[in-house]
Amino acid sequence: MLIFLSVIGPGIITGSVDNDAGGITTYSVAGANYGYRLLWTLLPSFIALLTVQEMNARMGIVTGKGLADLIRENFGVRITFYIFAFLLVADIGNTATEFAGVAGSLMVFNVDKNISVPLAAIAVWILVVKGDYKISEKVFLLFSVFLLSYIVSAILAKPDWGEIGKAMLKPEIQMDNAYILTMLGLVGTTVAPWMQFYMQSSVIEKGIKIADYKYTIWDVVVGCIVTVVVAFFIIVSCAATLHVNGVTINEAKDAALSLKPFAGALAGEVFAFGLFVASVFSAAILPLAASFYICEAFGFEAGINKKFSKAPQFYSLFTFIILIAVGIILIPNAPLIAITLWTQVLNAILLPVVLICMMIIINKEEIMGEYVNKRYQNIIGWATSGILITLSAILIFSELL
Amino acid sequence: MSGDNFNFIFLSEILHLPLFSAATGKKIGRIVDLAARTSHVYPKITALIAQMNSGSEPVYIAWPHVRLTVFKNHVTVEYPLDHDETSPGAAESEILLKKTFLDKQIISTSGYKLVRVNDLQLLIDNSSKDNPNLWLVHIDVGFKGLLRRLGWLNFINPVFHWLFARDIIDKFLTWKNVQPTTATNVHGSVIMKADSSKLSAIHPADLADILEDLGTDERISLLESISPLTAAATLQEMPMSLRLQIAESLDNEKLAGIIAEMQMDETVDFLSEFPPEKREALLSFLTQERVAEIKDLTQLSSFSVGSIMNTSFLTAKQTQSVRDVLKQVKTDTKHAELLYYIYIVDDEEHLQGLVTLRQLLAAKGTLPVSEIMRSAIVSVKIDSSIKRMAQLFFKYKFEAIPVVDDDDKLQGIITMGDALDAVFPEVKEAAEG
User: What ipTM was assigned to the predicted interfaces of this complex?
Assistant: First the structure.
């Protein structure tokens, strides 16, 4: 147990950041529009997430190198550069979505976005630039606990548990376009490309021994469970109130506002609070993660524990991403929906590339030694990759046409 | 690149060049890597590694077989090689430039940090008559090298020049100031121990920072190549979790060699993090004085009685008669460390009590020993500290204390003599010396 506590963190934090503003929006919309009918997708999402995250943890522990390092060393500078160019753009888009989440959630408490967004940005900047990793990690773990507030929100919504059980066990799959798109969105928001880089780097930052790998797996498992459990309760709380009453929504903030008349002001406020925490949390992690792998891949000094003057590119990049993201949100009438859409498309393009790189690297014996994928791991790994790649292709295709 | 800089060429400009046959003038393959010998001040290029149109494995073409080099265009070689001619084969010390350097991390020994290699700059030495020699002189770690690799330099540099009225600056490290983290030789997957003489100038604290940022394999290969003394000083600068991570990948002998050079208190802290078997294995590589010194520092706190207990002792069953036990003591005289105490156990070796030799001699031979044994006896757990054990000796003045496991099964004994050795090793040493 003591060892588990010492390796805990990377999996749980990554899993929690996964339920960011974009994720909460996707889950709320799915719940409001389709009730419990899409709950079943959480199971395959869980398996996909677990498979991918486990491989990252293993690669990190065995090689001691970040995914960015490994991709650069094995596939050369070109592919690395384009992956990271795309990743940076997607990351700015994602971060903007997070600040939109901050703005939206605090609007429920009547705080103007021109106040809330800059304040949140400054808080995040100080935490990362002035704080050290150990403190930040504890703050982040605390955030993860707050995400459980969605369970409260869902229980206050008094869902029909019998119906939930039925929907989970006997999924009805619709074949219309909107249903399939929402389904893709659900799976896509669960496995995002930046997570693989973040997961691997934070395992290394932890300095976990190969002998303790078996405990790390549990960290990954718990992280994945947190992800799907939170997702589950968000869908349930929206399904039990909004869907039943025929309310449709476009944003997570709408969900918080619409919950109020049906489940009481408290349910709406708890929901908004969860959204706020998730958004701030991800607004810190996403730009941080991006700065990390870009510096790693191109040989600049990186690390939260270094001074600004020691790692200028790292901190400049971090600041730059936050500034642009905040700028986008504060522009009046910013095209938020278009930004979200294009971010999703970029992620969908990146995911297959990253997954294929990962599968190739993890099967190289000169890199992984005895820890290369076993046969069953390859079967699960390639099947997961195949499904995610197909889903990504469908998503790109349908959104671009 | 302007024409006056003719004497330099980048590795990225040589890789992928087509290879022509000197005999037929036809294209026969392309260059995939260069081999170099590092024994000179600057590494000298010794061979081309080429992927031939025929055959799947890359081939080694020694530099003397290169006939004509039109850099940035093509290279003409004598191939297939004439085997009658004595051709210099690939030597162990030749490293592959692309595989060792390109996109890999190296240590800048002047800046004390890790940098990623974007390109290599080679010097073309035209002084010899027939075929120019190539030397590796600079490591390109700059943005310009990155752009060149991406194929954007010819586009971005003019734009930059137009904007700022100067070229993008090259950022080079000279060969003298870099240290590869691993080196792949011409036999492919073999990872040589890197020559680490340049690292000696780096302070262990800086070296520790560098090692922390390296991957597992590179870390181990570097640690194995530097002297145990430097390695020890470097390890001491690292957080414990990282030290253990590194220890996991080193073999015991190598690790013990490093530990032998560490400061005493660090050694003790470090050793106390290992499981007992690993610790014993490591201690077996150290000199006796060193081990004694380590034990001296550790036993009172972290070393457990299990490590000093004696496993040959006398036992008897409760049901045995006094005469029976006495007979047994006679036969066991040779093996047992201590004859005075006979421990009484049940069928599962659980400690029940003890009888002294004096009691046995005084009692009637037909009595079962359970009648005369003392049943409330003091014992220590196998994992209790030596300090605790020493306290018991001081308190009760026993000849020996039995050691039991968590199940109360008898595992061994500690005699007064063992205890004395463990608590005052320096006295023992003085007495023995």
Answer: 0.72
